[in-house]
Amino acid sequence: MGDARRARPVREPRTHGLGLDDEGRPAVAAQCAGRGCGQLCRHRRRPAHRRRALLLRRRSGRADDAAARQPRRLRPGAGRGSPHEPQGASRRARRDRRAADDMTDRETAHQIRGLVSRGVMTAANDEGETQTADVTMWAGIDRTGIEVIQPFGVASVAPAGGTVVLLAVGGDQGDLVALPVGSPAFRLGKLGVGDSALYSLDGSRVVCHADGSIEVMATRAVTVKVPSVEAEISSERWRVRRTDEKEARIVADSQHLKMRRGAHWIAITDDGIRSSAAITVGADPHPDV
């Protein structure tokens, strides 16, 4: 009796509860591997009404194994990796998430690349409040009316074909600004250390040397204006005149030197000195000049 009490009952292995087969006999029981075994059994927790419907279909000989094994629909609220998720759904979800991540990464990469770009200026307009330029960014991509940022005190209009660096404000390609345009083909080079210069397209320039000297070179003329006085120097002559009194001026060229004020004038040529009136010899009226 003691041995019988201590002996444990032998548990039979779980079997698939398939009910009756097509001929009405009990179906052959196969050992069940537990939940998720892939067979139609009570461990799949199929609803009772679906089990009854499937049993009736098997009895009538119209059971479809493919339909019996089709994946169940995803229940509301079932998440990734849930036992209620249909087979392959998590794989599709991961693939969709990877595609969305790749698209987001690609868009982010394009935005980062578009923050700073290089272009070629095709035309410039300096008539408005700010200078604007038409720029070719890439092959077949042209942008018009881009604002050109220029430092205070220095203004220029570069010729077509110059290079320009474009900045996308806030990463927005619709809000572009351009840094000052450069023109490597017409750049003034060979400056010394500490020198600075202003130059134009025809070669005219003002060079401030590091030793304190200033070199001014013009291909046509140099005009200096201050209130009421204007000085002009060209290859043909130089002239200084008062703008408030048009008759007061000094003009010099290759043939004569002439001074004029009102109705009186003095002209010095190779032949001698001529004047509108007799010259009076006397003391200097303005010794401090």
Task: Label this structure with key terms.
289 residues; alpha+beta; OB fold (Dihydrolipoamide Acetyltransferase, E2P); seven-stranded antiparallel β-sheet; five-stranded mixed β-barrel; 4 helices
Descriptive notes:
By secondary structure, the protein is an alpha+beta fold. Among the domains are: 116-186, OB fold (Dihydrolipoamide Acetyltransferase, E2P) (Beta Barrel); 220-275. It has 4 helices and 15 strands. It has helices spanning 2-6, 48-59, 65-68, 89-113; strands at residues 116-125, 132-138, 141-148, 163-168, 176-178, 196-199, 205-208, 214-217, 221-226, 229-234, 237-242, 249-253, 257-261, 264-269, 272-275. The chain has a 7-stranded antiparallel β-sheet, with no helix packed on it. A 5-stranded mixed β-barrel has the order 1-2-3-5-4. It has a 3-stranded antiparallel β-sheet with strand order 6-7-8, with no helix packed on it. The longest helix is centred in the middle third of the chain and has 25 residues, at 89-113. It is rod-shaped. This is Bacteriophage Mu Gp45 N-terminal domain-containing protein. Residues 43-60 have a biased composition (Basic residues). Residues 1-25, 43-110 are annotated as: Disordered. Residues 1-15, 98-110 have a biased composition (Basic and acidic residues). Residues 118-182 form the Bacteriophage Mu Gp45 N-terminal domain.
Summarize the topology.
Layout: H1 2-6, H2 48-59, H3 65-68, H4 89-113, E1 116-125, E2 132-138, E3 141-148, E4 163-168, E5 176-178, E6 196-199, E7 205-208, E8 214-217, E9 221-226, E10 229-234, E11 237-242, E12 249-253, E13 257-261, E14 264-269, E15 272-275
Parallel strand pairs: 3-5
Antiparallel strand pairs: 1-2, 1-4, 2-3, 4-5, 6-7, 7-8, 9-10, 10-11, 11-12, 12-13, 13-14, 14-15
